[in-house]
UniProtKB/TrEMBL annotation:
The gene is pcaC. It comes from Serratia plymuthica. PANTHER family: 4-CARBOXYMUCONOLACTONE DECARBOXYLASE FAMILY PROTEIN, CARBOXYMUCONOLACTONE DECARBOXYLASE-LIKE DOMAIN-CONTAINING PROTEIN. This is 4-carboxymuconolactone decarboxylase. Keywords: Lyase. The lineage of its organism: Bacteria, Pseudomonadati, Pseudomonadota, Gammaproteobacteria, Enterobacterales. Residues 36-119 form the Carboxymuconolactone decarboxylase-like domain. Its EC number is 4.1.1.44. NCBIfam families: decarb_PcaC. Pfam families: CMD (PF02627).
């Protein structure tokens, strides 16, 4: 697969996981500074890793959430908490990942993640109303 094909495949997965609105906002914000980086994300994160057959997207979402908790990456965690539903991840499953993270990432990290998840779920509930 060449870079353009990998990019196209990555964009398909990126849109399926994150949603068109999120991806469109990213594309609208392309600049000379970030354009190559955004293409890199689409080609490699979404076109190489998220398309691998070894794990389902559902599992990849749960793993990604746990890693972002461990790394304390709030903005990325917020994005992946929102996107998890697109991969069939339930709120109960997210809760279990947050509980597990308390043990392995520490109570402060899990506490912050619980607060963030509550915010994300409240936003999703208000949007659904």
């Amino acid at each position: 697969m060449n870079d353009e094909q990998r990019y196209q495949q990555g964009m398909e997965v990126r849109r399926a996981v994150l949603g068109d609105a999120h991806v469109d906002r990213s594309l609208d914000r392309l600049s000379p500074l970030n354009e190559e980086f955004q293409h890199f994300i689409s080609r490699y994160a979404w076109g190489e890793i998220w398309t691998r057959p070894g794990l389902a997207r559902h599992t990849r979402s749960l793993i990604t959430i746990s890693m972002l908790i461990a790394l304390n990456r709030e903005a990325e965690l917020r994005m992946h908490l929102k996107a998890a539903a697109n991969n069939g991840v339930t709120r109960e499953e997210i809760k279990e990942v947050l509980m597990q993270s308390a043990l392995y990432c520490g109570l402060p990290a899990a506490n912050s993640a619980f607060h963030l998840a509550e915010e994300v779920f409240a936003e999703q509930d208000s949007e659904a109303s």
